[in-house]
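Tokenised fold entry reproduced for absentees:

. . .
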Amino acid sequence: MKRWILYVVFSGVFIIACAGTKLTHTWVDVTYRGKPVSDILVIGVTHKKDNRQSFEDKFVAQLKVSGVEAVSSSDVIPIPPDLELKKEDILNAVNKFKNDAVIITHLVGVKEKESYTPPERNQGDYYGYYGWAYGDTHKPGYYRTHTLVRLATQLYDVKTEKLIWSGESESLDIGSTNEIIDDVIEVLIKDLKKNKLLPTK
């Protein structure tokens, strides 16, 4: 059970580990000339209604803390049984709430990664080093398997419907579902601010 905990947010399984989220790929439309977006419709793509709601609510909360207005698609668009949103429903929502951007996040994949941790190196004399080397040879360090969770996020300008930013995040050693969600969102918002797509305080 220890391997499973974030996967549930977008697919029904969970992963448990302890820390580390980074953006592995980003792209920004350098021709975009609009102002920083200020009102966002947040959409999480998953086949679990509760998981989608949880992710979107957290994203909305962090955006508001950053000074950006936002609404969760789960709160403003009727959810069909298959959870697939129609374009007209999204357009109705952005028109009603006057959103100037739509951000969409979905699970890209989950994979295992093995890492090697060597034993502590002895810093003594040459025989001390020999002893360390001998011990290392006979009792090598250990291998551990980590779970990597990759999420893709895309930001669209409502007026033109064009993609203006995209990023892929990778999370390693997750402590809890809420922790990974918070970490991912924090990393996304930070990069969006760096690229001047969100207002900075």
About this structure: The longest strand covers residues 101-117. Residues 1-18 have pLDDT under 50 and may be disordered.
